[in-house]
Amino acid sequence: MDKQELGAFLRNRRERLRPEDVGLPSGPRRRTPGLRREEVAVLAHISTEYYVRLEQGRAPRPSAEVLAGIAGALRLTDAESDHLHVLAGTAPSRTGSHPREVRPSILALLERLPQTAAMVTSAIFEVLAWNDLAAALMENFAEIAPADRNLARRAFLGPARLGSTLYGVSDVAAFRQHVVMQLRSALARYPADSEVTGLIGELRTGSAEFAELWERHDVQPAAVLTKTFQHPVIGPITVDCDALTLPDRDQHLVLYSAPPGSPDAEALALLNVLGADAGAYRR
User: Fold this and answer.
1) Any idea what DSSP says for residue 237?
2) What is the pLDDT of residue 282?
3) C-beta contacts of 159-163 below 8 A and 24+ residues apart
4) Residue-wise pLDDT tens digits, 75-123
5) In the chain, which ranges are continuous DSSP H helix?
6) More confident residue, 277 or 141
7) Taking the CB of residue 30, how many other CB atoms lie within 10 A of it?
């Protein structure tokens, strides 16, 4: 149970609600935004004292029933409710370090996708494996140090050669929000993993934007269906985005493809011929 993070999450979500959102009269002007603690307690059918202690990080672990009541009172989404349970220690939580070894079958699959740029990322956005088309579309990851293959670090602390974009993609802001949300979930699953805590600490210190997004406590990213890469050799390439979860390793298989016969599919085919050295950003 992460008492401090649980308290911060509850406080953040409480302050986002308005009385009318939960069927309460707004009443006289309030000193602080959101619901009062006693209002949440009433809606959740628990004592005000206990809820206050939860927000202050002083309460014992709440039961699943209590958490369900709080989730309903705060109008949490399914993803937010799951996150609440993880923070409270009432949901399965992985221990130790997050897995980095990619299954041989997935490595073989990457090479059987010649018209699709594909890569495998870890729970904290490390690029663990990739095919030649992914290297041609983005960067020849084999030529850079493993620490530089972390897309979260690139998104917020990228080297000057990347400018204000990340491999020329069109949705940098949305991707950064997605990164923050996923890292928060990863921290809940791997609270003792120094790689996870170290990366988050580095980003909070080095990026004011990350620090601001982190304080929002968002945990439900919006789906990204397409994105456009501004490739310096080929030009703009719009691709469909699919991220398939590999639950046994807590990894994602990320696929970038284009409809057969489309100009974007032809651009990917050309990149496939040019190979990894055509990567958008080279050393």
Assistant:
1) E
2) 44
3) 161/281, 162/281
4) 888 778 888 888 888 765 555 678 888 999 999 999 898 789 999 999 9
5) 3-16, 37-44, 48-55, 64-73, 78-88, 104-111, 132-137, 151-157, 172-189, 194-206, 208-214, 263-274
6) 141
7) 12
Nearest to 255 by CA among 243, 272, 269, 246: 243
Give 256's strand partners.
Answer: 117, 241
* Rounded Cα–Cα distance for residues 237 and 247 (Å): 30
Q: How far is CA 11 from CA 50, 74, 91, 256, in A?
A: 14, 10, 21, 38
Cα separation, 21 vs 118, in Å, equals 43
8-state DSSP, 169: B
Query: What is residue 149's three-state secondary structure?
Result: helix
Q: Crossing angle for the helix pair 194-206 and 172-189, nearest 10 degrees?
A: 140
Going by their DSSP bridges, the two strands 226-231 and 251-257 should be labelled as: unpaired
> Which of 208, 241, 209 is CA-nearest to residue 227?
241
Q: Which amino acid is at 75?
A: R
For tokens 């980095």, name the residue. Answer: 100
The b/e string for 111-144 (b: 16+ C-beta within 10 A; e otherwise) is eeeeebbbbbbbbbbbbbbbbbbbbbbbbbbeee
pLDDT for 23 equals 72
Angle at 190 between CA 185 and CA 191, to 5 degrees: 95
Residue-wise pLDDT for 247-266, tens only, equals: 888 899 999 999 999 999 99
pLDDT computed for residue 204 by the predictor: 94
Whether the pLDDT of residue 164 is over 60: the answer is no
- The rounded distance, in Å, linking the Cα atoms of 275 and 134 is 9
pTM exceeds cut of 0.85: no
Q: Contact, 268 vs 235, CB < 8 A?
A: no
